[in-house]
Design goal:
- α1 runs antiparallel to α2.
- The protein is flat, with a radius of gyration of 25 Å.
- The longest helix has 21 residues.
- It is about 45% helix and about 0% strand.
- The chain is mainly alpha-helical and about 120 residues long.
Length: about 120
């Protein structure tokens, strides 16, 4: 639990440091938003250090894998998705199957037999 959170914190802080070092005198809004997102990830990871739940924050899979798309500003997760890769995968599969019933197929044409005389 603690080690995964610590690694996530270290990665986020390293990324934030790299982003901040590469900023020019007048950073763009996109650069600033990217830095803010990475710092939020670092803050979340720091807040979960020593917590009872695992790195996913999931009650079902507390020590499961963290979804790699979590916190990605270019490919964000849909609303309601969390950090747990296992739960997000289940949600993706459920979303892929449309809950609507299939439309009724047309009845097959009735074939008429020709009776040979």
């Amino acid at each position: 639990m603690g080690y995964a959170n610590l690694r996530e914190l270290q990665t986020a802080l390293t990324t934030a440091s790299d982003l901040a070092s590469s900023l020019q005198s007048a950073p763009t809004r996109r650069d600033a938003d990217q830095l803010v997102n990475v710092l939020r990830q670092a803050l979340t990871a720091a807040g979960s250090l020593g917590a009872e739940t695992g790195p996913t924050g999931c009650a079902i899979h507390p020590n499961g894998a963290v979804d790699p798309l979590y916190g990605d500003p270019e490919d964000p997760l849909p609303p309601g998705y969390g950090k747990c890769l296992l739960c997000n995968d289940r949600r993706r599969r459920a979303d892929a199957h449309h809950p609507h019933p299939r439309p009724h197929a047309r009845p097959h044409p009735r074939w008429r037999r020709r009776l040979s005389a």
